[in-house]
Amino acid sequence: MLNHAIQYGRSGWKVFPINGKKPSLRGWQSKAASDSAAIGELFKNNCFTGVACMTGEDSGIAVVDVDRKNGKDGFLTLKNLGIELPATVSVLMAV
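Above: the chain's sequence. Below: its structure in token form.
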């Protein structure tokens, strides 16, 4: 995971460790980093299952969360509304 975090940081993304869907450290908003050395420090003593990316206005990264659950298909709904999502970085999370 550390290598992935460092690669994301090199792309300019501020990252932090997560455990499931929750941050692995307090104050992650101010600790998220793109610098390789800082990322190494964030990840060295944390029990984590993944790498998260800072999103929002400051990062310039927006997230669209489209689900398929409870008998509803968000992708089908978007298609029926004539909304086409652009090809971008995608994450598939199995729960």
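The radius of gyration is 16 Å.
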